Amino acid sequence: QVQLAESGGGLVQDGGSLRLSCAASGRTASSVGMGWFRQALGKEREFVAAILWSEANTMYASSVKGRFTISRDNAKNTVYLQMNSLKPEDTAVYYCAATLGGSISRVWAYYDSWGQGTQVTVSS
After folding, report:
1. Which of 42, 64, 70, 86 shows the smallest number of beta carbons within 10 Å?
2. Which residues of 37-53 are buried (b: 16+ CB within 10 A; e: fewer)?
3. Are 94 and 118 contacting, i.e. CB atoms less than 8 angstroms apart?
4. Tens digit of pLDDT per residue, the chain (124 long)?
5. Rounded CA separation 4/23 (Å)
6. What is the DSSP letter of 44?
7. What's the Cα-to-Cα distance from 19 to each of 30, 69, 110, 112, rounded to whole Å?
């Protein structure tokens, strides 16, 4: 089991930047895959980005590729999501997720640990 805690959300203007952090505790071995998902009000949860702890393998949703960057600091057991050129349609609650499945996926059901979420609001 992996325990996750997100931080870094807030209110930002159109075109601004934010960096989300996800601190992990518990089992953070090389087999852990980490993902960011988001859920806007009235919409389904959607994949944003994912990374493996052990490798630089990353995956992005097409809607954020080139604007968002996922990274990890193994020494701090923390995964980051740097979000640049934010748009109002990026407004959502952002969730960090972890899987012990040894890989990463765009499918939220693949992940078995979730953080509490952090609100990101982009004003126009």
Report:
1. 42
2. bbeeeeeebebbbbbbb
3. yes
4. 789 999 999 999 999 999 999 999 887 665 689 999 999 999 999 999 999 877 778 999 999 999 999 998 888 889 999 999 999 999 999 999 999 888 899 999 999 999 999 999 999 9
5. 6
6. -
7. 24, 9, 24, 24
CB environment 75-103: b (16+ within 10 A), e (fewer): eebbbbbebeebeeebbbbbbbbbbeeee
Cα-based angle 57, 81, 112 (whole degrees, multiple of 5)? 70
Amino acid sitting at position 5:
A
What is the CA 100 to chain-centroid distance, rounded?
Answer: 16
CB 88 within 8 A of CB 123: yes
Strand ranges for the chain from DSSP E: 2-7, 10-13, 18-26, 33-39, 46-52, 58-60, 68-73, 78-83, 92-99, 113-114, 118-123
